[in-house]
Specification:
Layout: H1 2-10, H2 16-26, H3 35-41, H4 59-63, E1 80-82, E2 87-94, E3 100-103, E4 106-109, H5 110-114, H6 117-122, E5 127-132, E6 140-142, E7 147-155, H7 164-169, H8 173-176, E8 179-185, E9 190-196, E10 204-206, E11 212-213, E12 218-222, E13 227-232, E14 237-239, E15 247-249, E16 254-258
Antiparallel strand pairs: 1-16, 2-5, 2-15, 3-4, 5-13, 6-12, 7-8, 7-11, 8-9, 9-13, 10-12, 14-16
């Protein structure tokens, strides 16, 4: 019963006022009362947490928890691309000639997702990867590559569910939800890291400062479960042979390699 209640609250809510109410509750001291049951229902791995469960003063604090440094190892191979989040890889594919990616049988416009025709053209015939974070996942986002931030911008206002049901029945959720896009230049070419909100306006908080990114370095966090979409320019990314869908993945694990070095500008 409790799981259904939490799911209704956290995964399915998108209304302005209900979101405001739930955000205030999650950040209030009163929400501390539900921290133990939430951890139990979603089977959070307390051994990985930097703090003990009783030290989290609010439900929001639990959502944006940090982990012990040694529990996530980052693949250090020079050309490797690593997962930026603990998540489930829901889909991988090619961006077609119409500048669309097809996820769960539904087309998503890259132009609409990025909000810019010129930016969308850059990723034509490239590769996309969709990584979904459930409420049970660690919610901080780390860089998948070494590189330089070219541009960062936000789009959208409301945030609808991005779980399997949301992707299947929602209206262009990955392209319309509130989202923060970070474009990174690497020696091989450009990568767009699209952080898609699932609930609450402005639920994505940037933590990284500066324009240089190191692989595995923290970039931002989701206040609640959501999705990250990675977009790669044509010909610069080769998926690791171990990757399939759906697949559970952790931060720092290799998802592929960059090719065509020295192409980036």
């Amino acid at each position: 019963m409790l799981k259904q209640v939490y799911r209704l609250m956290i995964e399915l809510t998108n209304g302005r006022w209900t979101s405001v109410i739930l955000r205030r509750f999650a950040r209030s001291r009163l929400s501390r009362l539900v921290v133990p049951s939430f951890a139990k229902i979603y089977k959070l791995n307390q051994d990985e947490m930097e703090k003990a469960l009783h030290e989290y003063q609010t439900l929001h604090d639990l959502f944006i928890r940090t982990l012990k440094r040694e529990v996530r190892m980052v693949d250090k191979n020079e050309n490797s691309v690593v997962s930026p989040v603990d998540a489930v890889i829901e889909d991988i594919g090619s961006i077609n000639e119409a500048s669309e990616m097809v996820v769960k049988g539904k087309p998503y416009s890259i132009q609409e997702m990025l909000g810019n025709d010129k930016e969308a053209l850059k990723y034509l015939n490239g590769t996309y990867m969709v990584l979904y974070l459930s409420p049970s996942h660690y919610h901080r986002i780390h860089s998948p590559v070494d590189g330089t931030i070219v541009k960062q911008w936000t789009l959208g206002s409301k945030s609808y569910p991005v779980n399997k049901m949301g992707l299947k029945y929602g209206v262009r959720t990955l392209a319309k939800n509130y989202r923060m896009i970070t474009e990174v230049n690497t020696p091989s070419g450009h990568i767009a890291i699209v952080k898609v909100g699932a609930m609450f306006v402005n639920s994505i908080e940037k933590t990284h400062k500066g324009m240089t990114l190191n692989k595995g370095e923290e970039m931002a966090y989701f206040s609640f479960g959501s999705t990250v979409v990675l977009l790669f320019e044509k010909g610069i990314f080769q998926i690791d042979s171990s990757i399939q869908t759906p697949k559970d993945i952790r931060i720092g694990e290799r998802i592929g390699v960059l090719v065509n070095e020295n192409r980036g500008t």
